[in-house]
Amino acid sequence: RMAIRELKVCLLGDTGVGKSSIVCRFVQDHFDHNISPTIGASFMTKTVPCGNELHKFLIWDTAGQERFHSLAPMYYRGSAAAVIVYDITKQDSFHTLKKWVKELKEHGPENIVMAIAGNKCDLSDIREVPLKDAKDYAESIGAIVVETSAKNAINIEELFQGISRQIPPLDPHEKGNNGVICMHGGKPPSQAHRCC
Amino acid sequence: MPGLAAPHPAVTLSQPRELRGGWVLPGSHCALGGAMCSREVEAALLRLEETFSASLAHVNTRILQPLLLADPEPWEPRGREHLQLLQQLLRSSQQLRQLTEQSLQSLLKRLHQPRTTGLEALPLLGSADGVLQVHLEYIESYTSCLVAQVFQQVAKGKREHWLAQCRPLQKYLAGMSFEGSVDAVLGQALCQPLAQHLQQYILLLLRLRDTLRKHHPAQELVINAITLYGNLQSFLQQALDQAVATQALGHSLSSRLKDALCTPGHRLLQDSQDIPVTAIPLRAERVLLFDDALVLLKGPNIHSFDLRLVWVHPVQDRCMLRVVTPEDEFSLCVRDPQDLVVWQWKVSQAVCQALRGKKDFPVLGAGPAPSEPPACRSAAYTFRTKGHLCRATYEGEWYSGRPHGKGTLKWPDGRNHVGNFRWGLEHGFGIYLVPKAIEDKFDCYKCHWQEGTMQGYGICEYSSEEVYRGYFQAGLRHGFGVLDSAPQAPQPFRYTGHWAKDQRSGYGIQEDGNSGERYIGMWQADQRNGSGVVVTQAGICYQSTFQADKMVGPGVLLSEDDSLYEGTFTKDLTPEGKGKITFPNGFTLEGWFGSGTGRGLNTQGVLDTAALPPDPSSTCKRQLGVDAFPVESRWPGVYGPFRVFMVAGCPGELQEALLGFHVQRSRVPRRAQDYLRCERSCLEDEAGRMEDALEELLCHREPAALQRYLQKALNSTWHPLGKLLRTLMLTFQATYGGFGANKHLQGMAQGEVKQHARELWAAYRGLLRVALQRKGQALEEEPEDAETRDLQVHRLMLPLVLPSFYSELFTLYLLLHEPEDALYSQGIASLSLFPDSKLLEFLDVHKHLWPLKDLRLTSNQRSSLVRDRCFLSATECLQKIITTVDPREKLEVLEKTYGEIEATVSRVLGREHKLPMDDLLPLLIYVVSRARIQHLGAEIHLIRDMMDPVHTGGLYDFLLTALESCYEHIQKGGMRLRRLPGHWDLRDLS
């Protein structure tokens, strides 16, 4: 029997960079047979296999507007990973990204996995943020980085696979740390999924 | 003898009547026997009655009345007793004569009018019981005179006079002898007529029977009468024998013993001199069985045992009878097994008769096989020795020599126990009164007893008017209990907590009725000892360590203005010694404190004004007591008896003792005369009811049915789970309710509610285990794995239990989140001034999502001014969050609210639309601000604390977080407004 690990992932980034589009695209091809309840495009789940585990991503969207920034800690507390999204056609959004990274480093959960997604790579002809800048920056903070296109479904799977790989494998005797909840076979709660 | 004509005014039948010759049939004719007709027999009966009546009249006038006059005013007690016995005999004799006259009259009537008067009109046939009664009374009074040797005493020294008196009776009494002592002659004269009469009656009745046709209606009456008179005859014989034996006993006894034993009421039934028997180990010289007592004689001592409290059992294979009495047990040994049978039979019969209070009729041996005396009896007895029962009088049910069943014990000092007994000791429910020096004051214990001591649940109303409700052990308060002081006491208090050996010990809460101060913490020997938290009515709250009722060492003091002091302080709550004050603005003052000489606080220390605002969790939101009183070990005295109950297999009869009284919820005021009445409703069949409950438990194991069952059980005042919950509610109210509710106790309270849910689930599992065991099955999944248990506790039990604690718990949340909720209310108030479209604009909601279609305008309204119309369905849905206490239902309300928002948006857009957070959050803020839910902060935190942890990170967590972020946002709005000076303009914000 494969263990199911629930991983809380929060989405950060300026409004309009396509945070929820990435997740919608990711969740569209459902691995699960039974569709999990969602809250519009704001809360979605998807389960993917990873090694001998199943990772169930619980993806929390956040409001990107500047005025709601102060509310973000409530959303990212207890997250195993954060996906920080910027728009490659908007330098400002990359700037905001840096602010998020800084905040997560200071106030976010320890050992949070950070993944940087440069969205709208289908519009590279009007790009404002060079890929190298993003890569250099990601390297400096030890984050995953990938350029995605939610529109054309580019690198979406890879983004989450990257996160999965970064999640430390589970110590079989220890459960749920760092916002990770695991279900060792046994009796799954109503909304947990049996592997197939 | 004119002087003797009427010795007594009541005596009317004093003169003998002459025989009425006309109806007399010749005696020779009777003797012929043969076929007499019924008429002839009746005539013979008539004659017989006439003779009897005449002889009775003569006996009266010539013997009884003169006997009475022999010493009409005796001065010594014995003489008075004799006079009484003679008067009794005279009355019985007159009754007998009256009866005979009655019989005579009816026989006469029948001879005159045989057609109209049936045989049943004759008293000896028609009212046999009355006839019997009169005869028995006569026999009784006659034999009493014999036993008391009345005739001997009265006639002493006047032999010739009395013989002369008796002589004329010869005419009626065939075979009367005038030899022997005068008392023997007198005795004969008083008994012989009756004996002869009975004998002749039987003969005539036998003839009467023969004259009647087979199916004559009176046939049966006649046969019954024959049996009756036959029985009377043998009864008379037996009574005479017993009387003679009793009288004769006197000769073999010393005069002291004789006076004690040969009393007129006594009859000797068996004497060990006739059938030898020895008593072991008492070594009595003689064993006497009387009709009311078994008597052992040992030297000058008499051991007398009331037969009503004598139990005899033959000892198997030995010639021995075991005799059990309330305070002595001994054996009666015989040589010959036959003798054993006689003794056993006689004792058994005597016991039976003594219990019935009258002699057997028909006599022994005449009826069917003798019945065993019952093992259970009802009698009164005063103990002479025997431990705590010494000199106490027990009245009630007995079993084999010991109080057993219901009864009352009364001690000479006024103590009094009414209740159940088992094997001689108080056992089961009982009410025990202990009088106090002050007149009319009692300590009244209404509780459960086990083997003579108070054990289990009880209520004690002390003479001081203090009332204790709780558990006892070995007669002392022990375990969980609540002690209330007298209502008018100068220092009223209520203690709710644990006891050991009659003293407060362990975790407990004491509230002072005057100051309202509440101590929550550890006790030892009636003193505060160990960790303790004190809450005052002024809102000050501190935690410290106590020793022998005094605070020792440093503590934490939280004042109502949210400043914090850590260090040592006095009982007046003044810092003294080393300590540190943290002010609400973050300033700290660390150093040495002292109260100094004047007023105010003296200190030498460092004031730090550069510190950041303090962490709320260590100041204004600090929770006390959580670590000092681990929630798992806080209330063992409440859970303990329940566990004992389950381990014992849920015996219905122990339920009340272990889980408290069944109290029916009624609001009838108590009256003074209800003093002894107990606040408990008795149940007839506890065991059966428990069995039904367990049976029902097994039928409701599927989730929905289980939920219904538990709901019912928890609400029931009778069900073990309901009782446990009610006790827990009591402790919860005592700790957190009322004026002592303090925000710094919220952590303890919420942990306790969850613990109670866990314990109640364990309790349910325990009951289930017992129910299955009774069916010979085992509980599957044993032990239950932690995950399943947590799931059941949170999903099933907590929502059922929460309503019982909700009001106290929610109050603590209210207090804890009061400042934030105040800001939030301000934010709501300011946002409610906006018209709908302004607010949507203010919150940066995309124009295409505005549900302007919902704005139906009347002619004089402008869309920009309409309020509270948009997202109305979502708003109304969200408002339902306060209609339930179940955290899960609250979360479901939240989910529905979201659904309503999405539905409204989809309607506006004309297509399905998945809202990203960028759009959802502003809409949600809009809905929350319009729902205007009071105390939303308290709600949110309560939901989060009580939420099933399995939802962490999931959908419900997300929804709750989203709601919380709306709350925070609105609060910030409120905060901003607070900073705005004076009047503010809507346009500044929009």
TrEMBL record, chain A:
Classification via SMART domains: RAB (SM00175), RAN (SM00176), RAS (SM00173), RHO (SM00174)
Domain of life, per lineage: Eukaryota
Location(s), subcellular: Cytoplasmic vesicle, Phagosome membrane; Early endosome
Family under the similarity heading: Belongs to the small GTPase superfamily. Rab family.
InterPro entries: P-loop_NTPase, Small_GTP-bd, Small_GTPase
GO molecular function: GDP binding; GTP binding; GTPase activity
Topology class, membrane: Lipid-anchor
GO cellular component: early endosome; early phagosome membrane; phagocytic cup; trans-Golgi network membrane
Keywords of the record: Cytoplasmic vesicle, Endosome, GTP-binding, Lipoprotein, Membrane, Nucleotide-binding, Prenylation
Biological processes, Gene Ontology terms: cellular response to insulin stimulus; Golgi to plasma membrane protein transport; phagosome maturation; positive regulation of phagocytosis, engulfment; receptor internalization; regulated exocytosis
Organism expressing this protein natively: Cavia porcellus
Protein name per Swiss-Prot or TrEMBL: RAB31, member RAS onco family
UniProtKB/TrEMBL annotation, chain B:
Cited Pfam families: MORN (PF02493), VPS9 (PF02204)
Keywords: Repeat
Domain VPS9 per the UniProt entry, residue ranges: 833-979
InterPro entries named in the record: Alsin, DBL_dom_sf, MORN, VPS9, VPS9_dom_sf
Record keyword Repeat present: yes
Superkingdom as given in the UniProt entry: Eukaryota
Key word Repeat present: yes
TM regions (residue ranges): none
GO molecular function: guanyl-nucleotide exchange factor activity; small GTPase binding
SUPFAM superfamilies in the record: DBL homology domain (DH-domain), Histone H3 K4-specific methyltransferase SET7/9 N-terminal domain, VPS9 domain
GO cellular component: cytoplasmic vesicle
GO process annotations (BP): endosomal transport
Protein name: ALS2 C-terminal like
Gene name, Swiss-Prot/TrEMBL: ALS2CL
